[in-house]
Design goal:
89% helix, 70 residues, mainly alpha, elongated
Amino acid sequence: MERPAAISQIREACKGIVQQLMRIHPAVSGLGDAETEAEFYRTLHQMTVELESLKKKLGKLERDDGSIAL
């Protein structure tokens, strides 16, 4: 698999994961346990931060590839 295709595939997978995380978030308040809810919110936040980190690395790879082509 070439780098652009790999980047595209990873970016689409990250997008899908983010969409699923957004579906979890509003349901957390229905769990009825403050400690569990707090842990869910903390973990969802951390997962979002990690996904954003991956997306930034993909962007850096794309920019690096663009500068090489010049």
